[in-house]
Amino acid sequence: MDPSAAPISKSQFSPAASALYPPSATHNTSVIGSVATLTACFSGAIAGILGLTNLTGFALYLATAVATGVTVAAVKCNFDVGKYSPQAHSDAGPQGAVVVASWKGWVELMGLGQENLLGFLLFWIGGYALIHVYD
């Protein structure tokens, strides 16, 4: 920050607080959450239709989550996930600098949260029950 610059008013967003613009970060989080949820549901349906059981089904979930995260990171983030992910920006560190932990951004991109896992399980069990009832 330039010490000779005019002080920041209360209505302005301080870049020292975070490098992310809050409305954009909210929109990005919403879109990433939707993509992760849809990926989990579709991979659950595929696991059920294919008749995967036990760890092979969870391996499919993990593989699709990683593939989705890498695809979004490549197409939209140019592999600089920490720059665009609000979860990668933690509280201010020493001297007020924002500390960026990019691995948290990767976890957010992959959508490995509880709600996505439960959606995967719902579609996996439903797809398996509908297709393989009489096996």
Q: What distinguishing features does this structure have?
A:
single chain, 135 residues, mainly alpha, two-stranded antiparallel sheet, 5 helices, 5% strand, transmembrane helix, endoplasmic reticulum, Emc6, membrane, EMC6-like
What does this molecule look like?
The chain has 135 residues and is mostly helical. It has one domain. The protein has 5 helices and 2 strands. The chain has a two-stranded antiparallel ribbon. Helix 1 runs antiparallel to helix 2, helix 1 packs parallel to helix 5 and helix 2 crosses helix 4. The chain is elongated, with a radius of gyration of 20 Å. The N and C termini lie far apart (67 Å).
Secondary structure layout:
Layout: H1 22-50, H2 55-76, H3 81-84, E1 89-92, E2 98-100, H4 102-110, H5 114-131
Antiparallel strand pairs: 1-2
Helix pairs in contact: 1-2, 1-5, 2-4
Family: Belongs to the EMC6 family.
Protein name: ER membrane protein complex subunit 6
Membrane topology: Multi-pass membrane protein
What sort of overall outline do the alpha carbons produce when their principal axes are compared?
elongated
Give the SSE string: HHHEEHH
Rg, Cα atoms, Å: 20 Å
Gap from first CA to last CA: 67 Å
Helices, by number, come to 5
Helical content band: 55-70%
Tally of DSSP β-strands: 2
Instruction: Estimate the strand proportion.
Output: 5-15%
Low-pLDDT ranges: none
Q: How many discrete domains?
A: 1
Spatial strand sequence of the major β-sheet = 1-2
Output the structural class. Answer: mainly alpha
* Mean pLDDT value: 82
- Could you give a short account of the major beta sheet? 2 strands, antiparallel
